[in-house]
């Protein structure tokens, strides 16, 4: 995988079919074998994802992969890399072994808790133009 250089951080991705959370920390990336193909890569999916069928050779390289589907609606979301090929290991290694198709998932930017808390805190402690002061 090649990380996508768009300034976005981690994403939360949901199943396009039913809306269940598929992964809470996915990255937008491009396939090493074809940089025109955009995907989301992750190292750990949620319990809503399961592997189905037998392993097979990937279409673009010699990695052995297995399809990954949503447990609720059974939509095929992408694949899981069981055994990376030598080429993929040499080029970039496989840190994120779960690959999700961009047409099968919906993404949203993941906000860190500290950032969200700071935004709420700033709004709470902001200038109180609408406050009523009792003396």
Description:
Belongs to the FAM72 family. The protein has 135 residues and is mostly beta strands. Helices cover 13% and strands 41% of the residues. It contains 2 helices and 9 strands. It has helices at 86-91, 113-124; strands at 2-3, 11-15, 21-30, 38-42, 49-57, 64-70, 76-83, 98-101, 105-109. Strands 1, 2, 3, 4, 5, 6, 7, 8 and 9 form a 9-stranded antiparallel beta sheet that branches. Mean pLDDT is 80; it is low at 116-125 and 127-133.
Which helices and strands occur, and which strands form pairs?
Layout: E1 2-3, E2 11-15, E3 21-30, E4 38-42, E5 49-57, E6 64-70, E7 76-83, H1 86-91, E8 98-101, E9 105-109, H2 113-124
Antiparallel strand pairs: 1-3, 2-3, 2-9, 3-4, 4-8, 5-6, 6-7, 7-8
What do the pLDDT scores average to? Answer: 80
Helix fraction bin: 10-25%
**pLDDT below 50 for ≥5 consecutive residues: which ranges?**
116-125, 127-133
What coarse outline follows from CA principal-axis ratios? globular
Number of helices: 2
Residues in β-strands, percent? 35-45%
Rg, please? Answer: 20 Å
Kindly report the name of the CATH homologous superfamily.
Peptide methionine sulfoxide reductase
Family: Belongs to the FAM72 family.
GO cellular component, one term: cytosol
Pfam families: YPEH2ZP
């Amino acid at each position: 995988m090649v990380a996508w250089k768009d300034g976005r951080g981690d994403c939360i991705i949901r199943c396009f079919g039913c809306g269940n959370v598929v992964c809470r920390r996915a990255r937008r990336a491009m396939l090493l074998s074809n940089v025109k193909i955009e995907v989301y890569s992750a190292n750990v999916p949620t319990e809503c994802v399961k592997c189905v069928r037998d392993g097979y050779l990937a279409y673009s390289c010699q990695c052995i992969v297995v399809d990954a589907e949503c447990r609720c609606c059974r939509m095929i979301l992408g694949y899981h890399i069981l055994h990376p090929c030598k080429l993929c290991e040499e080029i970039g290694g496989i840190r994120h072994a779960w690959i999700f198709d961009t047409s099968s998932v919906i993404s949203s930017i993941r906000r860190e808790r500290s950032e969200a808390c700071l935004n709420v805190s700033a709004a709470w402690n902001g200038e109180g133009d609408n406050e009523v002061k009792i003396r």
